[in-house]
Design brief:
Largest sheet: 5 strands, mixed
Helix content: 25-40%
Distance between the termini: 78 Å
Mean pLDDT: 83
Strand content: 15-25%
Radius of gyration: 23 Å
Shape: globular
């Protein structure tokens, strides 16, 4: 009986200690899904294209929100990782308003390809 009690204590202590180790960080971070999808805005400055990818809401975004430094993504190479972080199946609407414009068709095609590869539903609101 004493031996069984000792074994149970060792197992319980081992289980407790295993739960105390630091959590492993994921290699890539995936954004959570949004009920309202996501919105892309684009504009050109100094010959370069910039994008913002914002969570969709029931209200229009202000120019300050769209161009806030923490949301600005330089070029398609900046937009790509943000799109790749979205869960597959999300709706993404590309919007143009208040100083934002659509880039040339070749840039749109690059973004469209990224969305297709990632399984995102892209709608361009022209």
């Amino acid at each position: 009986m004493r031996r069984v009690c000792l074994i149970l204590c060792i197992v319980a202590l081992g289980s407790l200690l295993a739960g105390c180790r630091p959590a492993e960080q994921p290699v890539t971070t995936v954004a959570s899904g949004s009920m309202k999808g996501y919105e892309i805005y684009s504009w050109q400055e100094g010959g370069r294209w910039y994008f913002s990818l914002l969570v969709g809401t029931n209200r229009e975004k202000t120019p300050e929100e769209i161009r806030a430094p923490e949301t600005v993504l330089p070029g398609v190479e900046g937009l790509r990782p943000a799109l790749e972080a979205l869960p597959s199946g999300q709706f993404v609407t590309w919007v143009s308003k208040d100083g934002t414009v659509f880039p040339p068709e070749d840039v749109i095609d690059q973004v469209r390809q990224i969305c297709t590869e990632r399984g995102l539903e892209l709608a361009i609101a022209r």
